[in-house]
Amino acid sequence: MISALDLKGPVYDPGGYAEVTRSLALAFHRLGVKVHLQRHPWDFVRTNLPENWQKALAEMLATPPGAGPFLQIGVPDDFRKDPLRFSIGLTMLETDRICADWVRKCNEMDEIWVPSTFNWHTFTASGVDPAKIKVMPLGVDAARFRPEAAPLPIPGKRGFTFLANFEWNLRKGYDLLLLAFAQEFDPREEVCLVLKTLQNGPSFDPDGSSIRHEIEQFLHRLGKKATAPIILIPQVLAAGQMPSLYTAADCYVLPTRGEGWNLTILEAMASALPVITTRWSAPLDYLTPANSFLIPSTGLEPVPAIDRWRDKIYAGSCWAKPSLAATRRLMRLVFTNPALARERGRRARADVLSRFTWEAAATRMLRKLEEIGCGPRQLENEY
Question: What domains sit in the chain, N to C, each tagged with a CATH number?
Answer without folding.
Answer: 4-139+357-374 (3.40.50.2000), 160-355 (3.40.50.2000)
